[in-house]
Each structure stands twice: as C-alpha cells, then as structure tokens.
Amino acid sequence: MDVALIFPILLLAAAPTATFSCTVIRVHDGDGPLWCKNGIRVRVAGIQAPDFEDAEPCRQHRAAYRCDDAAAARSQRIVERLTLGRTLVCQPVGESYARVVARCTLPDGRSLSCAIIAAGAATRWDNYWRRYHMGQCR
C-alpha cells in the first residue's frame, strides 16, 4: 500500500472530528473516491452509486453492488460536474479501502451526498446513512 495514501488517513484518524478541505482533481465514480489536491481520497458517506464492472466488489460478486459500466460512467460524469475543481469542506466519519469516508459540503452549502442523490447519480444507502448520522436532504 502506498504510504502517501495512508498518511492523510492517519492524520484524520488522529483528529476524527476535524474538518478538512478537498479540492477535487479526479472522480472515480458516483460515490468515490474523489481525489483531493492534498492527497486525500474521499469515499462519499451514506450513498451507493453503480460501480464499474472491474471494481473489487464487482469482481467478488457482492450482492449489494450494482455493477454496470455505463451507469457508473453516467454517475461519474454527474459527480464530476458537481465537484471537479471545486473545494469541498469534509468531515471524516470512517475509513474504507484506504479512503476517508466523509460527509462533505459543496461550496454553495449543500450536502454533497444529497446533491448526488438529487442528481440521480446514487441512492441513499440506509445502513450507512444512519451510521454516519447524515440527516435529512432538503
């Protein structure tokens, strides 16, 4: 595992309530990771987007995942339009696959998770929505 990827996660684990800024430079799919200019990779909390067919959960045939390249690419494009080049304010709530799971806010104050759902790029993942105390979308 790349040490450059672990260091930001360790810093955030030491201060789990601290927020961080993420200027998005790359988007993998509709729920992440989002690559931040500062090296942090963010998994968007509380949502589930379609995955590319070569993603690890798809290769392992996990039932809870929708594996569809066309749908994943559509979700990716939507999230790129929402985030690419923008600076998000994020609060870490967990860790998954060497990524920081975070609740993030768009520059206009909207919840990123809610904006992604509203745009049709992902659905609410109820178990994690409750676990991460995501609240209501407006």
Walkthrough of the structure:
With 138 residues, the chain is of the alpha+beta class. Helices cover 32% and strands 26% of the residues. It has a five-stranded mixed β-barrel. Strands 4-7 form a two-stranded antiparallel sheet.
Q: Secondary structure elements and their pairing?
A:
Layout: H1 3-14, E1 20-27, E2 34-36, E3 41-44, E4 47-48, H2 56-59, H3 69-83, E5 87-96, E6 99-105, H4 112-118, E7 123-124, H5 126-131
Parallel strand pairs: 3-6
Antiparallel strand pairs: 1-2, 1-5, 2-3, 4-7, 5-6
End-to-end Cα distance: 39 Å
Count of distinct strands:
7
- Our Rg estimate from Cα atoms comes to 14 Å
Q: Estimate the strand proportion.
A: 25-35%
Shape: globular
In round numbers, the mean pLDDT is 87
Structural class: alpha+beta
The H/E string reads: HEEEEHHEEHEH
Low-confidence stretches: 1-7
How many H/I helical runs? Answer: 5
Spatially, the strands of the biggest sheet line up as 1-2-3-6-5
Largest sheet: 5 strands, mixed, barrel
Q: Helicity level, as a percent range? A: 25-40%
Describe the structure concisely.
The protein is an alpha+beta fold.
Features:
alpha+beta, 5 helices, 7 strands, 138 residues, globular
